[in-house]
Amino acid sequence: MVAEEILVRQLKQKDSQAKAFEVLVDAYKVRLYWHIRKIVLDHNDADDVLQNTFIKVYKNIHNFKEDSKLFSWIYRIATNEALTFLKSKSKLLGVTSEELQSLLLENLESDVYFEGDEIQLKLQNAIAILPEKQRLVFNMKYFDELKYNEISEILGTSVGGLKASYHQAVKKVEHFLKNN
Amino acid sequence: MKILPKNSGFKVPNNYFEKLPERVNDKINQNTFIPKNQGFTVPNDYFKSVYENVVTKISAAEEVKIVKLNLSKRKYYLAIAVVAVLLFFASIISNLTTSTTLSFQDIANSEIENYFNKTDFNFSTYDLAQMLPIEDMEIEVTDIIDTKINEEQIINYLESSTGIDIQELYKEDYE
Fold first, then answer.
1. Which of residues A85, A115, A145 is at a domain's end?
2. A107 and A174 share a domain?
3. d(Cα A88, Cα A98) in Å, to the nearest integer?
4. Cβ–Cβ of A30/B47 closer than 8 Å?
5. In this complex, do B47 and A29 lie within 8 Å of one another by their Cβ atoms?
6. A33 touches chain B (CB under 8 A)
7. Most CB within 10 Å of its CB: which of A84, A109, B40, B72?
8. Is residue A36 located within the same domain as residue A87?
């Protein structure tokens, strides 16, 4: 992959923008998709949010000040897009965010793009009851295996706070899986 | 005891303490029974089409921006211009055809009463007397009291309540 600074420079220049954007989408699409999918759960929703994330990156690359990594900046956009999507969805359906999580889980059981067994479904139930911040940290640390300093850059939370959130989340998920 | 060295000679690897939390976490993750696979899948060849889908959306948005938005802006300005011209002529025509202008008399009495009833002005009786001179009021004393009072009775009342000799005042005025 082209070095990050070169890619950013190419993205900001009109003549090299199209090619650089293709490289960027290729480099990040899989990781970003899974990050988004874990938040919104449904494939079609994840696809919409992923496309919107890349469109935002394309339109706002000139505002990227390079004081953080490109990867963190894109992840932050993806996270915000996914959370905003969920908020609009709950507003549209006239339900609270907790009720929306239950609805998403119900839909997951009949989702053709979910092949989880009983334990995996139980795991999704356990993750769904976590508060939003803990849910994000748990997904990013446990499944995406990001480092605390990377998560800190993405979510704008201190490393200490993230560690506390992660340990609490692990405890809660384990407790749920043991007792349900 | 004093000759014993304070340094025990033990050493730790470089960045041992900085990396300790990460290692503890890894250990936690190894020991947990939480499954790593979440069971999500994607349609076949989904990731191959992501770039094309995004580019199609961007192009569509740019086309809308360049062509349709400009057209609608033009229409918008045209509509505003037409409405402005129509309003201008309408105001001229209405001024020519109608001679009546709005005045205080046009306000419905009920609205004025309502305004005074609902608004607390905190006027003193003196303020009211100043604003509503008795001679301008189209009322007679008999509108308020049934019995007719003659002048002599009024003078007697004023003399008894104030202690002033009214007849003397008259005399002073003419002297």
1. A115
2. no
3. 14
4. yes
5. yes
6. yes
7. B40
8. yes
The pLDDT value recorded for residue B114 is: 79
CA distance B175 to B160: 24
Q: Model confidence over B75-131: pLDDT tens digits?
A: 767 778 888 888 887 877 776 665 555 666 666 777 777 777 777 766 666 676 666
The amino acid at residue A96 is T
* Domains in chain A, number: 2
Q: Which of A25, A38, A142 sits opposite B51 (nearest CB)?
A: A25
Q: Which residues of A touch B21 (CB under 8 A)?
A: 148, 163
A114 vs B contacts (CB less than 8 Å): 39-41
- Please report the pLDDT score of residue B70 as a whole number: 56
Q: Both A16 and A83 in a single domain?
A: yes
Judgement on whether residues A20 and A46 belong to the same structural domain of the protein: yes
Yes or no: say if A128 and A108 are a contact pair by the CB < 8 Å rule.
no
From chain B, pick out residues whose CB is under 8 angstroms from the CB of A34: 40
ipTM comes to: 0.82
> Does A158 lie in the same domain as A89?
no
User: Pick from A115, A143, A162: which residue ends a domain?
Assistant: A115
Which stretches of chain A score pLDDT less than 70? 1-2
| Pairs of CB atoms within 8 A across A/B | 84
Nearest to B37 by CA among A116, A43, A172: A116
Q: Which domain holds residue A129?
A: 116-180
Percent of chain B with pLDDT over 70: 57
Q: With 0-12 CB in 10 A as exposed, 13-18 as middle and 19+ as buried, what is B57?
A: middle
The answer to whether residues A96 and A132 belong to one domain is no
